[in-house]
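Possible regression after last week's pipeline update?

I re-ran a chain I had predicted before the update to compare outputs. Posting the input and the new output here so someone can diff against the archived version. Not blocking, just want to make sure nothing changed silently.
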Amino acid sequence: MKTFKFTLLILPVIIFLSSCSKDSLAPVEELPSLAGTFTVAETSTFPDGRTDRDEYVITINKSATDKSYFEIANFAGLLKKKVQVLVDGEKFNIPSQTFQAGNSKMTVAGSGTLQGSRLTFAYTVRGDFTWDANCVSDKR
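New output (post-update):
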């Protein structure tokens, strides 16, 4: 009799717990994609206090060599080499990367967010060229 009562008490708990399912996260493919072409409005500040506004187009694609990265072509409207970007959901990081052209060397680093079709990011350039930039860009 005790076993029967115990079973009657435990059975609803077992049924309740077995009906629960794990919440599933959205597959990465469903998250907003960073890939695309963007028109960038940039405001740069130089060490002497001058500011400059510029507009240019960048193209972002998944890296062909490392699937955890994206690559930005025409970064800052001047770099011929692609800048690597590490994405984490709607946030992204531009890890420190050094580029050399002739005798000139510069290191780029920054971070930003993607909300809908708007990409907002800030970056710094150090080396033979130095400036800080804030950018707002919209997907074309």
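Follow-up from reviewer: compared with the archived run. The helical segments are 2-19. Marking as no regression found.
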